[in-house]
Amino acid sequence: MKRVLDINQFLHGGDYNPEQWWDEPDVINQDFALFKQAKINTVTVGIFSWAKLEPQEGNYDFSWLDEIFNRVKKMNGYVILATPSGARPAWLAQKYPEVLRTDNRGNKRGFGGRHNHCLTSPIYRKKVYEINTKLAEHFGQRKSLVLWHISNEYSGECYCDLCKDAFRKWLKNKYGDLATLNHAWWNTFWSHTYNDWSQVNPPSPLSEMGNKGMNLDWKRFITDQTISFIDNETAPLKKITPNIPVTTNMMAGNPLMDPFAGFDYQKVARHLDFISWDSYPAWSNDSQSTEELGRNVGLIHDFFRSLKHQNFLVMENTPSRVNWHNFDRAKRPGMHELASLQDVAHGSQGVLYFQLRASRGSSEMFHGAVIEHRHPEKTRAFKDVTKVGKDLEKISPIVATNYAKAKVAIVFSYDSYWALQDAESYSVNKNIWQTIQKHYRYFYDHDIPVDFVSPEDEFSQYDLLIDPMHFLMSKSYLEKIDNYVKNGGKIVGTYISGVVDENDLAYMNEWPKELQEIYGLEPLETDVLYPGQSNLINFEGKEYPVYDYCETLINCTGKVLATYTTDFYQNIPAVVEHSHGAGKGYYLACRTDYSFLGKFYEKIASELVPEIPITKFNGRVSIQIRENKSEKNWFVQNFSDKEGKIELSCELVNLLEDVKDKGTISLKPVESKVYTLCR
User: Fold this and answer.
1) Which of 76, 126, 311, 522 is the most buried (most CB within 10 A)?
2) What is the pTM of this model?
C-alpha cells in the first residue's frame, strides 16, 4: 500500500518536548498561545521521550501525550509522532546491557548520550517493537496524526559479538564460502587468507583497516543492518496504521552540505514512505558567499528529493543558531525567510524547526528555538518564524504541486564514494562532493531542474547524465550506461572512473570495453598535482586552469575538444566528445574549475534551459519551479546582499504580496518572490 503525506497546507512547526515542562503547566499554556501567534500548525513529539512514555518496563503512560494531541486538535493542527528508539531509558540499559554499543576497539559503552544502541541486539529490537506497537494502537486513529517519525538521525556502528556474528552471517550469505570471500578481498596479500569463519572480524584499528574489500563490505553490512532495524521499527506501524506514512530525518554535513555517508541513504529510502532531512547550513560564514552556500543547499535539497523522486520535508532547521557549529552565528535579517522559501521551492512540504521551545538545561539548552528562554515573543527569531508562517499560508495551494520534472541527472553511488575515499595514490582529500557541486552549478545558475540517481535507478527519462569520479563500476552498471548512450542519451564522465569492480578489485589489462565504446578512449596514467600546482588546457582557443588530477589518454577515436598545454603530456587530449550509437559520451580527463565547466555545459546543455516568463540577469538569483497539471509556480530568490533585477514577460500574480507584477522588478538583498500565472 502506498502511504502519502495527506495535507492541505504546508507544515510549520517542529520538535516539541512538553515532557521537559510537564510540572510547569503555565509554560505549556504559553507555548500553545505562542504557536497560534507564530502560525505554527505542526508539532513533532515523542522523539526522545521513552523514559516518559515507559517509565518502568511494561508500565506505559501516554496520558501526557494524549493532552498534547487534544491541544493540537483544538488548533486544527498536525502531529508527527516519533518512535523513541534514538535514546533508551536508564532502566533498559541497566537491565539489558547488551543493548549498548561497543566501539571498534572493543570498549563497551555505558549509559548516556543518544544513538548508543546496538542495531543487532534482539532485546533492543523487541523493546522497540513493543513500544511502537503500543504507540500505534493508542494514537493510530487520531485524525491529527499525519506522519510517523522513526527514531532520530540514524547513525553509528557497533562492534559487539552480536554484530560480529551478524557480519559473518551476512558475508556467508553474500559469498557462500571462504574461498570466494578470500578472492573478493584479495586476501593472499600479506598472508591474510582465512580458513575459518571465526577469523573474520570487522575493520578495527586493533587488527585490520587497510583491506579495501573488507571496508566496503562493512559499510554495506551497516546499511543492511540499519535497514533491518528500520523494518523492525516500522512493522507494527505499517500493520496497525497502514494509511500513515513513515519517515526518518536524514542528515547532511557542514559546511560542505554533503549527504551523510555512514550508510547508503539510497537503499534506506526504499524502506521509507517519505523523505525528511535536517537542514543546518552555516549561513553568513566567513568562507562562502550566500550565493555559493545557497547553491549548495539547493543541491542537497535536490539530492534528498531524488531519493524517492517526490516531494520531501525539512524536518529540522533553526530559526536562529545552533549549538554545535564551530561558530554558532545567528541568521541575519531576511535569511530565515530566504532559506525557508528555498526549502519549499525545491520540494519541501513544510518548514520545521529544532526546537519549538529551548531546553532549560542539558546538552542542547543553547540551541536556537522559536521560543527562547527570555522574552520569547520579542525575539527577532520569533518574529522571523511568524513571517514565514504567514508566507506559507499565503502560498498554501502550492502544497498540491511537485518540483518540476528534470531532464538532467547526476549519478551518485555510495559504493563508489566509499571505495574512492578508501583508495590511496590519488590525494588525501578526493573532493568528490565538491566536484559534484561544480558540475551542478551550471544547471542551478540556469534554472535547469536536476535529479540525483543511483546506479540502480532508471535513466531513460533523462537527456543528460553527469557521472563524475565514478571510481567503482559494476558490470551491470556498465551495461546500463552503454545501452543508455546507444539509445540516444548523453553522458559526461571524468577522471578516476571505472577503475575497480563491485568488489573493489582493479579492472585488469584494459579499461572496461563499455567505457571505451562510450568515450572512444582509454586512460593510461593519472598525474596527481600538489595543492599549489596547476596545469592548463586549451578549449576553443582559450586556456583554462586544471588542478589536482590530470589523466593521460590513449587510443582516442573521438573528437578532441581540449588539450593540455604544459608538462610532459602537452598537446595530449584532455576533453573528448565521442558518438556511440544514437548518443554521445563526453570525457573530462582533468579537474577544472567552473570557468571551464560553465563554457563546456553551455556547449552541450544550453537547449535544456526551461522556457519561463521570467528573465534574470545573474546567477545570484535562483528560479525554481513547482507545478502540477493545472498550474505553474516560480520561486524567485535573490541569494545576494546586493539588489537584483528580473524581467517579467507577462503579468504574473505575486502571491506573497497579493499584487500583480509586470515588466522590470527589483529584488532587495535576500528577498524572495513567488509567482503564478494570472487566472
Assistant:
1) 311
2) 0.98
CATH number of 9-29+252-261+279-396: 3.20.20.80
DSSP annotation of 201:
-
Whether the per-residue pLDDT at 679 is higher than 80: the answer is: no
Residue indicated by cell numbers 580527463:
589
Diameter over CA atoms, the chain: 77
Contacts of 441 (CB under 8 A, 6+ apart): 295, 594, 597, 598, 619
> For the structural domain made of 614-677, what CATH number should be given?
2.60.40.1180
Residue whose grid cell is 532520530: 152
Contact 69, 79 (CB under 8 A): yes
Residues with a catalytic annotation lie at 153, 316
The domain locations on the chain are 9-29+252-261+279-396, 408-608, 614-677
Mean pLDDT of the chain: 96
Mean local confidence (pLDDT), 524-545: 97
Burial status of residue 526 (CB atoms within 10 A of its CB: 0-12, 13-18, 19 or more): middle
Note whether 67 and 32 are within 8 A (CB): no
Q: How many CA atoms lie within 13 A of 451 on its CB side?
A: 26
DSSP state at residue 331:
P
CATH of span 408-608: 3.40.50.880
Residues with Cβ within 8 Å of 456's Cβ and at least 6 positions away in sequence, in order, are 266
